[in-house]
């Protein structure tokens, strides 16, 4: 019973992260499952199946709060499901250790760009509303779905930063659309894994426990992403990408850094991330203060004009 409660808390924590930042459900839940002593193979299988329910709940919550662009969901989700099914069915036995560091470098570059741009400049508005085309979203979905199923996660870490970097979709809708489309990827990947390796080793009680925690967290995360300022949200997402992929690189065969070296990097990243978030929050508050007097000043004359005829 104690383990089931812990699993439910794992699902809650992982969905709060994923639903708020558009990524890292797989990374967060698998890491926490391993931390409580779960077998690595069972953890991976359990997470993929639990994602079917959590992504459905997350997508519904994001839709309710107006965080979903259905055109983006269709354009990226369909090719993503194809990539996820293919990767799970035909390539689940292929080691991705060599490709992992390369992908980590790409994502680390994107994460650094997002952190710097959103922290220093805020959200780019000159391209907001411009359509995201199939020739961009199609290949992106295919690659992200493939990476997600063969690498044990990657739909959010690949899709979210790429769309954010385009500057065409505001952060909350980027996160909501990625989370919603992930339902298709979770279903396709799960079907592929069942066909490829069967359901051996999967504890469906654990799946249910993770799902319950995720269902509780989904609406909370969707509400958070709607109310967090885009500038702050972008800084938060950038930090998650940098930290996650730095960890991947330091643990890869390319570097294989010692624990002491890793923690030096982690402390440095946490310090930079905290400073970036602090700066973003302060800039956002300063911009709100600057805008308020203009709004009040503009409304006073109108109010006076409207009041004059009534007095006569």
From TrEMBL:
* Protein's name in the database: Probable membrane transporter protein
- Membrane topology classification: Multi-pass membrane protein
Q: Which family does it belong to?
A: Belongs to the 4-toluene sulfonate uptake permease (TSUP) (TC 2.A.102) family.
GO cellular component terms attached to this protein's record? plasma membrane
User: Looking at the record, which segments are called Disordered?
Assistant: 291-312
Q: Name one Pfam family in it.
A: TauE
> Which parts of the chain span the membrane according to its record?
98-120, 181-198, 204-225, 232-250, 262-281
Keyword annotations for this protein, in alphabetical order, are: Cell membrane, Membrane, Transmembrane, Transmembrane helix
Q: Where in the cell is it found?
A: Cell membrane; Membrane
Q: Is the Cell membrane keyword given for this protein?
A: yes
């Amino acid at each position: 019973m104690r383990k089931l409660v812990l699993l439910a808390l794992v699902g809650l924590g992982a969905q709060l992260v994923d639903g708020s930042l558009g990524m890292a459900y797989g990374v967060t839940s698998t890491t926490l499952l391993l931390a409580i002593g779960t077998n690595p193979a069972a953890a991976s299988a359990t997470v993929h199946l639990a994602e079917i329910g959590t992504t459905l709940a997350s997508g519904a919550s994001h839709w309710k709060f107006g965080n979903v662009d259905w055109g983006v969901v269709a354009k990226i989700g369909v090719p993503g499901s194809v990539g996820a099914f293919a990767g799970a069915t035909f390539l689940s036995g292929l080691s991705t250790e060599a490709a992992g560091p390369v992908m980590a470098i790409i994502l680390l570059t994107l994460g650094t760009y997002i952190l710097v741009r959103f922290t220093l400049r805020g959200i780019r508005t000159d391209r907001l509303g411009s359509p995201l085309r199939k020739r961009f979203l199609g290949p992106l979905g295919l690659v992200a779905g493939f990476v997600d199923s063969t690498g044990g996660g990657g739909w959010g870490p690949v899709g979210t930063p790429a769309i954010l970097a385009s500057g065409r979709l505001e952060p909350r809708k980027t996160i909501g659309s990625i989370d919603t489309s992930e339902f298709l990827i979770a279903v396709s990947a799960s079907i592929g894994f069942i066909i490829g390796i069967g359901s051996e080793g999967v504890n469906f009680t654990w799946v249910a426990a993770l799902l319950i925690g995720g269902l509780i967290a989904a609406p909370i995360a969707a509400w958070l992403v709607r109310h967090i300022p885009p500038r702050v949200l972008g800084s938060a997402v950038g930090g998650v990408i940098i930290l996650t992929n730095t960890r991947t690189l330091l643990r890869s065969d390319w570097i294989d850094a010692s624990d002491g070296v890793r923690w030096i990097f982690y402390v440095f990243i946490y310090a930079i991330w905290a400073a970036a978030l602090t700066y973003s929050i302060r800039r956002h508050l300063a911009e709100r203060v600057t805008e308020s007097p203009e709004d009040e000043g503009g409304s006073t004359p109108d109010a006076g004009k409207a009041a004059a005829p009534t007095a006569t």
